Structure formats: structure tokens, C-alpha cells
Amino acid sequence: MATSGTHQEHLGHVVFITAAAAIGGFLFGYDSSVINGAVVGIQRHFKVSAVEIGLVVAIALLGSAVGAWFAGALADRWGRTRTMQVAATLFAVSSIGQMLPFSVWDLAFWRFLAGVAIGMASVIGPAYIAEVAPPAYRGRLGSFQQLAIVLGIAVSQLVNYGIGQLAGGDVNNELLGLEAWQWMLGACLVPAVLYLIFASVIPESPRFLVAVGKTRQARKVLLEVEGEDVDLDARVAEIQAVLKSERRPTLRDLRGPSFGLLSIVWVGIGLSVFQQFVGINVIFYYSSALWQSVGIDQSQSLLISVISATINIVGTFIAIALVDRIGRKPLLLIGSAGMAVSLATTGWAFSAAAEVDNVVALPQPQGAIALIAANTFVLFFALSWGVVVWVLLGEMFPNRIRAAALSVAASAQWLANWAITVSFPRLSEWNLTFTYLGYAFFAALSFFFVLRFIRETRGRKLEEMG
Fold it and tell me: Cα(304)–Cα(368) distance, rounded to whole angstroms?
């Protein structure tokens, strides 16, 4: 019984520090979707066009690409936890700036800065979790990143809905001297401060500690996260052996014969791009405006966003339960097939939208079908690509290039996210049906990409990746 209790104690400690590191994912989800409730208010307040609002929404993603690009190098130089603290501080400052903008352009600057912080967290979180998690639990613990993202999305939608109700259902109404949408953006300060606090109390990654010669601290962390049954001398020696055969990774280390990069790096980039090109973040950035564009009022559209965020959480828990049981690759294949069908169905339903007396509406049964299909898409994404991509990116690369390769893959993800986000307002004005059919095409293509290029990593030690 003592052994079992000790094991549970160590596992509980690992769960705590993993959850603390994953708060960066919560920030990612919160900031990504909080704009969903605010976007209509921003457009009305500053009287900007669809192109300008698309740029304001999407510029955070360019910042995220920048943050992700440099995060790996900063983490190798400063340590994982110190880099988390820097990201949290940047996010806190940007939250205040977004709450009190003078114009749409300084709002864009603060959103860019928030993006830099989120990009840094998106790289450090999965890498840190992969480095502290025991191999037997790494898939489920790696899923905490995506769980935190979907919780951030859900909480932001609940906060938006609550603020909207307090403001009488209109995000341009004032609350305590500020418009409701400003309070929505300012609420980001709370999770930013929590992230800073937790990043200051969790232990440093044992691999980083060994790399900088702090083997005593590394042994202590390994004992805390892997338990007394582990041969600490052997584990430290194993990490040292890997580190001796490598040097600090740079972008030059990623060069290879496959169009200038190593094949495994291209696979990571492909995973990142497909995760975004299925259009998932259109749901979380624009769903409020999307449903209003087909005849649903503002209050109801905010409630639909809450429902979608809840379904996202359910799907994520399904993935956490299955990722270490059936593996990464089967989940991706199931998700790709489900997303392709549900997106195509959504596109078909939107084709029935019609304007009557200057009011756009979806007739029945297409209205109900569109809602069900769109949320089915969210479910299939959450139980597959939402979780598994982050798990794979944290564990699929060889140790010698992990930080640099993860930075490149994460940057590609943010750039793909930016392309989808900035293009959606104009594409939806042009033809909403064809836009969704385009997302369905990429979902179908992702199935064959996984079938051909993805290797299963379930149960393998990080030191075995090659």
C-alpha cells in the first residue's frame, strides 16, 4: 500500500506541474476566442471594414508566429520556466492595452504583442510537459496542453456571454465607463497573472538542468516526477549521453535533402498546417459573426459559441482517454474522416441561406443541420487533431533538434492560422458554401497525409526518437 500511495503522490505532483505549464495553453485558447465576442463591437466602435477587422483579428497570429520562432532558442538559453514567466508578463501588459485602445491600430499592436506571448507559450508548454512526463503517461499529460486550450475557449465564451448579458445583449453598450467588448478583452489579465504565478513555482525541466550542469537539481526533479523506483543515476546518464552527442539546436540543424529541410521537420510542418487549414479557428474567432450573418441574433449567437466550446471540451476528454490506449495515428485518421464529412455537410446547409426583406436567414431543416454539422466538426477536431498534434509535436522530433524543430512547426501553425483567419471575412462575403467546402477538402487531404507520413510514437522514450 505504501508503494501505491507513493506512486499516486508522484503522479499527482506530475499532474500539478503539467497543469501549471499548460496554463499557457489556456491563455492561447482564451485570447484566441475572446475576440469572437468582441469582433462585432470593435467593428462598430471603430467603423472599420471586413478587411480591417480581419487584419486586427489575425495580427495576433503573426505575433504568435514570431513568438514561436524564437521561443525554442530562448528556452534553451534561459530555461523553460523563465521563458514562461516572460510570456506571462508580455500577455498581462497586452491585456491592459487591448482593453484601453485609442484606435484600431494600437489595438492591433497590443494584439500582436499578446500573440508573441501566446506563441512562446505554445512552444514551451508541449516541450516542458514532454520533458517532465513519464513515458507511460506522456500522451495523456501532453493532452493537457489542448485541454487547457479548450478550457480557455470555453471560459472566454462564458465570460463574453456574461458580460454581454450584463450589457443588455449589446457589446457596444457601456459597463462602468467602458464598452462591453473592452471588458471582454481586459479579462485576459486574470489568466495571465495566474500563469506568471504558477510558472514561478514549478520546477525546471530535468533535461535543461542536466544540460547546464545542475545534475543535483535534475536528480531531485526526476525523483519527484518519476518516483523512487527509477534508477536516477541511469536516467541522468541517459540524458547526459544524449546531450553529449548534440549541441544547442539551430535552424541550420534542420537542413536536409527534402527541399532544404529534414523530412521529419516537414512532417511537423504538415501536421501544423493541416490542423489550421480545416478551419477550426473560424469557429472560435468568428462564429458569433458567422451565425449572425445567417439570421441568428447576437445573444443567441454568443450562446451557440458557449455550446461549441463545451462540445470542444467533451471531445478533448475523449482524446485524453484514448491517446495512450489506441495511439496517435488512429485518432488522427478518425478525426480527418469525421471532419471532412461534417464540414461538407455544413457547406451544403449554408447554401440554402436566403435574403428576405433585407434579412438573411437559413430555412429549416438546413438551419438545424448547419448547427449540428458545425458542432460535429468541433467534436471530431477536439477528439483528434486538437489534442494529438500538440502531443506529437512535443515528442516526435529527435532530442538534438527538438526545440528548433518545434519552433519551426509552431511558427508554421501560426502562419497557417493567420492565413485562414485573415481570409475568412472576405471569403464568407464571397461564398460561404465554397469556403466550407474548401475546409472539407483539406480535412480529406489530411487523412491521406497521416496515412502516408505519420509514425506512431505511443509508449516510446524521448531519447528513442530518431
Answer: 12
